[in-house]
Design a protein that fits this description.
By secondary structure, the protein is of the alpha+beta class. It folds into 3 domains: 3-64, no CATH class; 82-218, OB fold (Dihydrolipoamide Acetyltransferase, E2P), CATH 2.40.50; 227-298, no CATH class. It is 18% helix and 16% strand. It has helices at 3-12, 34-41, 127-138, 176-182, 198-210, 215-218, and strands at 82-91, 94-99, 102-108, 111-112, 143-148, 160-168, 173-175, 187-188, 276-277, 293-294. Strand 1 and strand 2 form a beta hairpin. It is globular.
């Protein structure tokens, strides 16, 4: 593909525009995250085969893991999306937002992440990581959150059923539901008639399985229970939301967030997280009313 035509295609499909002259070739640094580079590399029409310098089928192996832009939608927000403000993340596929001044719970559709909240089920493998990933993604100050309705408005629990989209100041667009599955933090879960983005999310799951990402590597697949004594592990070099922890060794009593083991005694004002799961023995007494939810309303 001629260099100029390649640049036009990349711009139209939403690939990051480099600071240097547009006639220069893209490098791995232009993609930010490995999932973004690998997805673009696996899209033949982008003509980015040179990103795989050693021919092993893996582009930019030194990039950190993160998420990919919405190449499947030409990196554009769909019509009819509504801006929203995040209040909190409940778990890997449920959030609370404010839309037009009204606070509402939202269930992200077409996906399912490992369970952390169901009192009748044990905490599942990679549930804490999925919650952390979603919270980190939606807390980015350079992105605006939007919600998209499919067919159904709410579920039986009166939660809004929505796709979540982020538009970054850079112009990049990410569909959160698809990004969760592509990065290995959740799986495709179809509930007709809400299936508008089923095929992109199905392809995202195939991508995660093909590359052994997230729960596919750590848990062998979805719906794998872990004991209450299990410790969450986070991507190397990550900075979990809340108390800074770079070792990946976290208190098992708080599966939604990472409180480092052997931390000094903490109170709710010491951390930014709210409404997270608390399991016995609750060493920091975040759940004073013992209802299983930490730092609610504080």
């Amino acid at each position: 593909m001629p260099r100029l035509l390649l640049i036009v295609v990349l711009v139209l499909l939403g690939l990051p525009t480099p600071v240097r002259a547009q006639t220069a070739a893209y490098t791995c640094d232009d993609f930010g995250w490995w999932e973004n580079a690998q997805t673009a590399f696996e899209t033949p029409e982008f003509g980015l085969g040179y990103l795989d310098s050693d021919g092993d089928g893996i582009a930019c192996p030194d990039l950190a893991h993160g998420f990919a832009q919405a190449f499947f939608n030409n990196n554009q927000l769909p019509t009819g999306v509504v801006p929203a403000t995040l209040e909190w993340v409940t778990d890997g596929d449920t959030i609370n937002v404010v839309v037009n001044g009204v606070s509402s719970p939202v269930r992200l559709i077409l996906i399912d992440t490992p369970e952390t909240k169901d009192p009748n089920d044990p905490v599942e493998c990679y549930g804490a990581e999925a919650s952390y990933f979603l919270r980190s993604l939606l807390s980015d100050p350079t992105a605006q959150l939007y919600l998209e309705k499919d067919v159904s408005d709410t579920d039986r629990y009166d939660r809004l059923l929505r796709y979540a989209w982020l538009k970054f100041d850079s112009g990049a667009v990410v569909q959160v539901n698809e990004a969760i599955v592509r990065s290995g933090y959740g799986v495709l879960s179809t509930w007709p008639p809400d299936v508008k983005w089923e095929e992109p999310i199905r392809e995202a799951q195939q991508f995660a399985v093909r590359h052994g990402l997230g729960l596919w590597a750590k848990c062998g697949g979805a719906d794998t229970a872990i004991g209450a004594s299990a410790q969450a592990t986070f991507p190397a070099g990550s900075q979990p939301i809340g108390i800074a922890a770079t070792t990946g060794q976290c208190e098992a009593a708080y599966p939604d967030i990472c409180i480092p083991l052997n931390s000094p005694d903490l109170n709710c004002p010491d951390i930014p997280d709210r409404r997270f799961t608390v399991l016995p023995p609750d060493p920091h007494n975040f759940d004073s009313d013992m209802d299983g939810i930490g730092c609610e309303g504080q």
